[in-house]
Amino acid sequence: FSADLNTPVKELEATDWLPFREVLSQSRSALMVGHVTLTAVDPDRAASHSRRVVDGIIRNKWNYQGVVMTDDLVMGAIYQHDVCKA
User: Fold this and answer.
1) 66 Cβ partners below 8 Å, 6+ apart?
2) Of 27, 52, 54, 67, which has the highest C-beta tally within 10 A?
3) Residues near 46 by beta carbon (within 8 Å), at least 6 away in sequence
4) Which residue blocks in the chain are alpha helix, DSSP H?
5) In this structure, is residue 22 part of a structural domain?
6) Long-range pairs, 40-49, Cβ under 8 A, ≥24
7) Pairing of strands 4-5, 68-69
8) Number of structural domains the chain divides into
9) How confident is the prediction along the chain (86 residues), in pLDDT tens digits per residue?
10) Which domain holds residue 55?
11) Is 47 within 8 Å of 33 (Cβ atoms)?
12) Does residue 48 sit within a domain?
């Protein structure tokens, strides 16, 4: 099954995303993006498949240019299309 996170972006910025931004700003760490759907950002795609999340938030807003990865692209909850397109 898929998972939706209905938390507003302002709340995520003030809480959940703080530790990630802190680590990414002070290290050369890679970032693993999960398969949860952030409904306030992109209600149609899991974060792992969302340009709004990866390009819009992580790359542009956070200015993180390091490695962004995800795990299992053929996981039942998110695999809907050709794995190459994912």
Assistant:
1) 24, 28, 29, 30, 31
2) 54
3) 2, 34, 35, 36, 37, 77, 78
4) 9-14, 18-26, 51
5) yes
6) 40/6, 40/7, 40/8, 40/9, 40/12, 41/9, 46/2, 46/77, 46/78, 48/73, 48/78, 49/78, 49/86
7) unpaired
8) 1
9) 679 999 999 999 999 999 999 999 999 999 999 889 999 999 999 898 899 999 999 999 999 999 999 887 677 666 666 666 65
10) 4-69
11) yes
12) yes
Please indicate, yes or no, if residue 53 is contained in any of the structural domains. yes
Q: Which two structure tokens, joined as six digits, stand for 33?
A: 């993006």
The beta-strand segments (E) located in the chain are 4-5, 31-32, 37-38, 68-69
Q: Does residue 44 belong to any structural domain of this protein?
A: yes
Provide the token pair at 18: 């703080």
